[in-house]
């Protein structure tokens, strides 16, 4: 039995702080319990009232006399600790603390919250909140609405958790407007005890919950979330709206919940790493959830569009292709079947424009035909309602076709979504009809839902390949890192770290003067690059600290003298110079690592060079990083086609790039003193022998 059972399946509920005032939270809590038809006993508690909602009111929890599974606490903050002590003494097994004024308000509130949490956990009792809106369980055997929300939840198959109580009201409103049903709803508030991780584990084994949806403002334990979400995500989809995308939003989220919000790029990397699907808004999340709730997962990204209007069909095509879906190439037999019952003016290419005269029979037959095509993985039905047409009949025809073909091998696992451009009366009729395909008002919303279905299905199909373990000299690396207290390694040591980890570098020498530079160039071989070394010199090219294309001793001497003058003009005193063999061919890419205090090492890959911060064409990943993760990072940048070779250019050796990412992932996991690392540029060349690191910076710290 789950430790959360007393909260979600109580046999008796005490409302501490119940009130006779209709405009109070204490009144709304009792009212919602009764309106929902809670199947257990409800006990209002208020020492200054004899009855609330015609129920006998008790002066204290102890005075109830009967066993209490769940206590809902809505009293002023200064009384909460005493009420909790009373509940624990009375044997209450679960708590929902509605009251605000704890960690979200500052140090004093945080101290009280910590005492409450420690006391509750010591007693083996679970607590939702504080600073929350409550919990809902729509199971008819329980019918629990322990919230003060004005909108009741409809029965369904989506489990929803919100970190914000106020937003929870809006969530229930949007769900009702869209006709979306829930299994359970939880407003976590400050997450002092029960967290999103607890709820993921609860819903993992709940067959009635098909989709998990979350509104989050912070991660209490990101590593634990990753572990749980990866496991649960292979069983059912997890959809997340994460607030705090901007620095300003992150500060607001911190103030609201009493917890720090992570950098958005790290959050996105974390969610992608464990297969969690991120939505931009609550409405977008519900659009996605509705598709997962009613549709099978597609076998691929190939889409067929069936419409009665050319313009919206083109809009839908653009939206879907822009989100990574592919327009299916229909089989000749499928096109012949469509042509056999559609008018000559219709287009049987994809999108299939049946023209405005298309009715229920045409939609039914067209959907059946395209779903039976092996080249089609999913279908989007689009209907613009003409005069005297019945859009419900059209939608029912599409639903009948989807249901009829679902059992056939050629059509099984092919979702059907619909965009119906109709009046409000239609949406009121379609709301909550689970026998119909999920309905969207506009093509863009349906396209996002289809794209999310395809991405999640692809993630579920990904092979699980463990990261390779490289045989390297970690003791030598540790010694090099130990020689630097805190700060950047000198360039020679930074290059040596890469070489000890099997990452090839362009031949280099660190020199102190012109004569040593000339000797190094003779040893390495021309052409060479000359780079200045100084602790305060981050972007060397900005002050003339890099000279390329040096072919002779004379050119090297001149470059050395000119560089020394430029550095002096900019107030830099070089500690030495680096002479490096210049390599040609290939493309400059960047590898990077930064360390987040809560998320751990974050790896980066993208197009490199001096404009990396301008173009920002990079992707991020988290450890543990496997080969599939590395390949997706490489393929996910906008410049990936350049690495594949264009206009006759040879392709870069992608296996080398994957190898470097995996080696860097092992390096930063085994050597956590590495706080930042940049390999920029790395030459991504056609062959392994010319794919090498050209520059590297490593910062170490505690």
**Which radius of gyration do the C-alpha atoms yield?**
31 Å
N-to-C CA distance: 43 Å
| Broad shape | flat
Secondary-structure content class? alpha/beta
Task: Describe the structure in brief.
Helix content is 39%, strand content 21%. The chain has 702 residues and is α/β, with parallel strands linked by helices.
Secondary structure layout plus pairing:
Layout: H1 5-8, E1 12-16, H2 25-36, E2 41-45, E3 51-52, E4 55-56, E5 70-73, H3 77-89, E6 94-97, H4 107-122, E7 126-128, E8 134-137, E9 144-147, E10 155-162, H5 165-178, E11 182-187, H6 196-204, E12 211-216, H7 222-233, E13 238-242, H8 247-257, H9 264-273, E14 277-278, H10 282-294, E15 302-307, H11 310-322, E16 326-327, H12 332-341, E17 352-353, H13 360-371, E18 378-384, H14 391-405, E19 416-421, H15 424-430, E20 439-440, H16 443-461, H17 474-482, E21 487-488, H18 491-500, E22 508-511, H19 514-524, E23 528-533, E24 546-550, H20 553-569, E25 576-581, E26 587-596, E27 600-607, H21 612-615, E28 618-622, H22 627-635, H23 640-644, H24 654-670, E29 674-684, E30 696-700
Parallel strand pairs: 1-2, 1-5, 5-6, 6-7, 10-11, 10-12, 12-13, 13-14, 15-16, 15-17, 15-18, 18-19, 19-20
Antiparallel strand pairs: 3-4, 8-9, 8-11, 21-30, 22-25, 23-24, 23-25, 26-27, 26-29, 27-28, 29-30
Helix pairs in contact: 3-4, 6-7, 10-16, 11-16, 12-13, 13-14, 17-18, 19-20, 22-24
Structure characterization notes:
This protein is α/β, with parallel strands linked by helices and 702 residues long. It has five domains: 1-132, Rossmann fold (3-Layer(aba) Sandwich), CATH 3.40.50.720; 149-294, Rossmann fold (3-Layer(aba) Sandwich); 296-461, 3-Layer(aba) Sandwich (Rossmann fold), CATH 3.40.50.261; 463-506 and 583-702, ATP-grasp fold, B domain (D-amino Acid Aminotransferase, Chain A, domain 1, 2-Layer Sandwich); 509-582, ATP-grasp fold, A domain (Dna Ligase, domain 1, 2-Layer Sandwich), CATH 3.30.1490.20. The chain contains 24 helices and 30 strands. The protein has a seven-stranded mixed beta sheet with strand order 9-8-11-10-12-13-14, sandwiched between helices. Strands 15, 16, 17, 18, 19 and 20 form a six-stranded parallel beta sheet that branches. A six-stranded antiparallel beta sheet has the order 21-30-29-26-27-28, sandwiched between helices. α22 packs across α24 (654-670). The longest helix has 19 residues, at 443-461. The chain is flat and about 100 Å long. Residues 248-262 and 406-411 have low confidence and may be disordered.
